[in-house]
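RETRY 2/3 - previous attempt timed out on the joint model. Re-submitting the same 448-residue input unchanged.
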Amino acid sequence: MNTTPVRPVQTIIFALLVIGLIALALGGYLTPLSRLVLNPVVSAQTWLSVRFQALQNTIAAPQDLARLRQRNSEMEAEVSRMQTEIIVLKQQISETRVLSALVDFARVQPENRYLAATVIGRDPSPFLEYVIINRGSDDGLRRGMPVVTQQGLVGRIAAVTADAARVQLITDPASTINVKLEPSGAQAVIRGEVSGEISLAMIPQSAPVEIGDLILTSGLGGNYPTNILVGQVTGVRRRETDLFQSASVQPVVDFNQLEIVLIITNFRPVDISPLVPTPSAP
Amino acid sequence: MAIWIAIPILGILLILQTVVASQITLIHGTTDLVMIAVIAWSLQKRVRTAWQWGIIGGFMVGIVSALPFVVPLISYLIVVFLAHKLRQRVWHIPIFAMFVTTFLGTLISQAIAVISLRFLGTALPLREVVLLITLPSLILNLLLAAPAYFLFGDLAKWVYPEELQV
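RETRY 2/3 succeeded.
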């Protein structure tokens, strides 16, 4: 039997079929057929892939969850750190504003030398209006030096240690300051009160006092420099039967918000007690 | 040890007083943390160092405050004396003794302060003092009295542990 010629014929026919299919495919004639065949395959593959991915996620979820939690904690910590930084920066901005205002104030009065200090506490007694600052004798402070802010008069140093000082505010009940009114120039006295306010006393009856008049230090008595702003008149009390007028005053400084103050270090209070006449002994 | 721990505890309370409590005012009254601590400590049953705490507290406040140095010292010693007397009389309701001592202690310490300032030439109007300072300070001190009593009760138990009888 002779089979040898069949094999080559089969091979040729198979090759021709393949070439034909390829040609048809390249020509795009097999596209509908391929769509019919491939669509179910793709659907099956998608179905299987989704389920396999779900299974994979379920297995990997604890790790992912732990990673996500850790990452979440890290980000929360970073947010907290940034929020703290924002608060610190805002505080610095506020301090910079205050210091800038104080520097401007110092520039306006170049004859004075100033030292800045931070208010670190208040007197524990509710009857006294004192603050404690973080500068002392080591910084050149002495008892009696005036203390101001860029707004106006705060008080004067009452006691000093090496690193701290106690400042008597002008609102202290024991505080009395010789002042003058603008524009009249009348002399008067500012006194502190228990309520933490200040009042103007001993205004001569003949002196014209109006609401809105400015109150400045007069320099009398030698305890304060001249022309430091103290406050503004907000109300006048005048009775013909009284020796003096009195007035209520709005201080220019907000004593509840004192943070940074300036001490005038080149001012020495004058001790005038030797000049005060004493009653002669009988 | 009971004397030595007075220094950091009263020191911290004094710092809190000057930095925080003096700015938290009711009208113009403030709380006196050091005095409340001294009273709470003095009223504890096991405590034997109440006088020392009064002296240390008065000494610390006298240094910081612009009041005459002896004023807080005398005030706190009177308060300790009051606490001792009340502890003996009201031993079965110690928290009541705490309130009474705080009330009387506030009145006495502020009266001493006002009288000393008057001697020094600062006359404070009595009506304003009572309405603006004393009554609000009383309220604030009484609010803190109970928590302070229990806190210092725990401190006393730690400093003076109860002896077990076998």
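The mean pLDDT of chain A is 83. Closing ticket.
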